[in-house]
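During the no-cost extension, the postdoctoral fellow (Dr. R.K.) reprocessed legacy sequence entries with the updated structure-token encoder. One reprocessed record is reproduced below for audit purposes.
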Amino acid sequence: MIGQERTSIITSGVDRVYDITVDQKEHKLYWVDAGRHTLESSDYDGRNRRLLTRMNSVKFTSVVVFGVSFYAFSNIFN
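Re-encoded structure tokens follow.
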């Protein structure tokens, strides 16, 4: 896995994605975008993209999935 056969999944509507995590059980991707102040998800192939939350006063920096819960963190404030 040296990155020679990469595939772009989400190519539009993103600004500064700081972190991405994989939910293997549910086959979902979760990511935080500090530029758009969002937490989003999609299927592995990029379909069924969902905006989970937008908080204009927060720049999310990381996301973790644990069981049926996910947690987004921020250490940067506007």
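DSSP finds no helices and eight strands in the chain. The longest strand covers residues 17-23. The remaining legacy entries will be reprocessed before the final report is submitted.
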